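Example 259, ligand 2-phosphoglycolic acid.
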Amino acid sequence: MKAHTPLVIGNWKMNPATVGEARKLFLEVRKELGRKMRTTVVAVAAPAPFISEIERLNPSQRIALAGQDIFFETTGAFTGEVSLPMLKSVGATAIIVGHSERRARGETDADIYKDILSIIKANVTAVVCVGEKERDSQGNFYSVVEAQLRSALAAVPKSKLKQLVIAYEPVWAIGTGKTATPEDVYEMKLFIQKVIVGQYGRPSLKTVRIIYGGSVKKDNAEILMKIGRVDGFLVGGASLKPKEFIAIINSAEAYATNA
Ligand code: PGA
């Protein structure tokens, strides 16, 4: 089966501290990325207050803009929340949903389901994060991922599969420097595919990208593509270092063009 064009998303999380620094970081990423046409789709998920400024610095739209989270309601009395129409109006075309750092702050599968519904309805891409907190030798972590996945898929009709990306992010690998082995990543990719095929049938595999996140660096990106066979990455810490981030993108690109 033909491989997907890779997708690499930089998740800046709650960084950097000021709009000035965000501007500088984005301009460096833009410069490092250069002008070449690439198969790889590159996206940056900046904090919500910086997205419109970054949109202004991105007239060519060569870098897609993503949100890090939404609240599912569109407008109203929800102090502190950011809605999908707000992010869409400043240029976001994808939203990360169900990141483990949001789940750790109380977000449930039921909340995530509502977020995905609202994203899918608005023709925006949902990058749904799933992943276990720890690995046990009996393989119970597969049921953890399966439950998160099934709850998310319930919000996505077959006709909207194009808007779905699954990010496998084992929680123990996020920000820790520990990466899942490429073999483990590949096994989990196959498992996620099995659940997706069970719900939508085999052709769905051509549509849904499965990416990996958790301590992705320039040194492990290539092997994660090659043996992990993922369709790209969700990059946290390394996305704040433009040269490192571009090296990861280049690894994805090199693999995709040689595969
Ligand atoms: P990390 O974060 O690359 O810093 O491990 C990944 C993520 O949280 O998406």
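Summary: Strands lie at 7-11, 41-45, 63-67, 92-97, 125-130, 164-168, 209-213, 232-235.
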